[in-house]
Write the structure tokens for this entry.
Amino acid sequence: MLNLVVLTGAGVSAESGIPTFRGKEGLWKNFKPEELATPEAFRKNPKLVWEWYDWRRQLISKAEPNKAHKLLAQLNAVIITQNVDGLHQRAGTKKVIELHGNIWRVRCTSCGKEYENYEVPLREIPPKCKFCNGLLRPAVVWFGESLPMDALEEAERLAKSCEVFLVVGTSGVVYPAGLLPFVAKEHGAKVVEINPESTPISEIADIVIREKASVGVEKFIQTMLNL
Ligand code: NAD
Ligand code: ZN
């Protein structure tokens, strides 16, 4: 069995009805995600940022893992994801490395405690810490913030040691996650990309499957079986 590692982005959840960041349907009240998913935006207007997260949490709470999540789970590979929606775990993947956090976790800006919060819709916006009543923020990584060190290190180690690095549904333009396919390639892995559109990763990919995630993952599995 090949040593396979998977990297996913928002595109893998598109067929679950969760908009990607860069698609038109991802817009909320005409704001671009780059204007909302930043520490500056949160400092300026925590209520506005939380209203956007509340909207996304509502969408995600109604969503189900799609065929791509389910087929990927059957591969028994580690999944490194930029998604914050938790759908890989719900599809049964045992080992998921979340590079950008999880939308169902909150962190207190006063006492620093982090915990799960599944309230949909939120009763109070912005929500307050259950320990100290401080202002909560989503425990996700915003533009300009660093990734959790342990998750990033593990992702890099896996990229360096795998034989096949499968990339599904990411634009590859958010760093450092977007660099992982390049790290894998440099260390000898075959890179396979599944994306209906071309990305910077397409240029170094050994195999490009120009399909949406569900069809693409099915084709990938067929190819692997025929090897
Ligand atoms: P992105 O929006 O930048 O790119 C999405 C990519 O998916 C594009 O390349 C697009 O061509 C492709 N795509 C669209 N529909 C697809 C489909 N049906 N099948 C396969 N591919 C499809 O998203 P990104 O690359 O993940 O990076 C941006 C950031 O967005 C990340 O930090 C992530 O945390 C965040 N994000 C997460 C979610 C989520 O958790 N579901 C949703 C939106 C954004
Ligand atoms: Zn607190």
